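INFO batch 0412 | record 1 of 1 | parsing
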Amino acid sequence: MAVPKRRHSTSRKGKRRSHMQLKQPALGVCEHCNHPKLSHRACPNCGYYRGRQVIFPREV
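INFO prediction complete | emitting tokens
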């Protein structure tokens, strides 16, 4: 089995890992209450999804 003869430098390792960072989730806006929410999910603020209420949010 092939084994590397020398170790990879830290800059080479960093170049390889430059695309591994976490990305921000794409947020949309709720059509009912204009609260930011994740796409394809019910709004955590009002409970609406695609124009109808699918969950009842907790009252705090």
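INFO post-check: The first helix runs from residue 10 to 16.
INFO record closed
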